[in-house]
């Protein structure tokens, strides 16, 4: 499993109004290319939009 995110210590929610829509689109395109490449290796992927950052942070910090 791969998780693509920024520095977990600095993870925070940002709305589209806080970042450039062009940047958001570019990130989405890049992630979709990763998804498509994973399919070449018979790997499944899943986009996750809503998650509980504090729980994810706890998982990575062990």
From TrEMBL:
Say which domain of life the source belongs to. Archaea
Which GO molecular-function terms appear in the entry?
A: oxidoreductase activity
Q: What InterPro entries does this protein map onto? A: Nitroreductase (IPR029479), Nitroreductase-like (IPR000415)
Query: Where do transmembrane segments lie in this chain?
Result: none
Q: Which Gene3D superfamilies match?
A: NADH Oxidase
Give the Pfam families listed for this entry: Nitroreductase (PF00881)
All residue ranges annotated as the Nitroreductase domain in the record: 10-60
UniProt name for this protein: Nitroreductase domain-containing protein
The lineage, from the top, is: Archaea, Methanobacteriati, Methanobacteriota, Methanomada group, Methanobacteria
């Amino acid at each position: 499993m791969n998780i693509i995110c920024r520095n977990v210590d600095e993870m925070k929610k940002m709305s589209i109004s806080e970042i450039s829509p062009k940047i958001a689109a570019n990130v989405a395109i890049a992630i979709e290319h990763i998804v498509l490449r994973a399919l070449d290796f018979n790997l499944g992927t899943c986009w996750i939009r809503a998650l509980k950052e504090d729980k994810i942070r706890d998982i990575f910090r062990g």
